[in-house]
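Service request form, structural biology core

Requester: graduate student, group of Dr. S.
Request type: structure prediction, single chain
Budget code: on file
Notes: please return the result as structure tokens.

Sequence provided:
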Amino acid sequence: MKKFIAFIAIFFSFTLFSYEGYKNIDSRQAYELVKKGALFIDVRTTKEYKRGHAKGAKLIPLYDEKDGKIEPNLNLVKEVEYLTNDNYDKPIVVICRTGHRSAKASQMLSDAGFTNVYNVVGGFLTNRGWLAYHLPIEK
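Core staff response, request fulfilled:
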């Protein structure tokens, strides 16, 4: 419970006092960055990810379902640090279903010091998203 309260406090501090330290891009721009070697993370739930995801995207949920409850992932930044080998300048592309969770995760990563973070506006499923542009997917 203490971890959850800490996460909520951090989340609201990002929301209330945040600046946009990341860049918004569309799915086609994201695809080009990924082809050039950007780390590609999907912050949807495990259940959503398993239904289908953008090809090459690694799952690091912002929130996930555990024992029937939705819980925040308190290790999101640490997991990205691990995947980038602590390279805070590595390009990171973040996607979710619609672009809202990925914006929150992008802000968290920017606030943690990552300098090349890209939020996919329109996410995976909207009419401006990954699927709408018929970009590669995996199941």
